[in-house]
Amino acid sequence: MYKHKGFSFMGEYANRNAHDAITKNSDETLIGDIVQVENDLNLQTRFFLKTIEPSL
User: DSSP for 18-56?
Assistant: First the structure.
């Protein structure tokens, strides 16, 4: 995360990998579930402004 004078930036990357994308029991019989294999990138930016309080 990077922050500077009201500006902030954050990013993350995830890599999920599997040798075989189909799950198996210890005796190598197929369970039938699928493992999600993917790459993800998440970026966020923010900028905070000074708040102005209304006069009553």
Answer: -SSSEEE-TTS-EEEEE---EEEEEEEEEEPPPP-PPP-
17 is written with which tokens?
């990998």
Helix (H, G, I), strand (E, B) or coil at 19: coil
Classify 44 as helix, strand or coil: strand
pLDDT tens, 17-46?
888 888 888 898 888 788 888 899 999 999
pTM above 0.85, yes or no: no
Closest CA to 39 of 7, 17, 6: 17
The DSSP output letter for 1 is -
Q: Which amino acid is at 28?
A: E
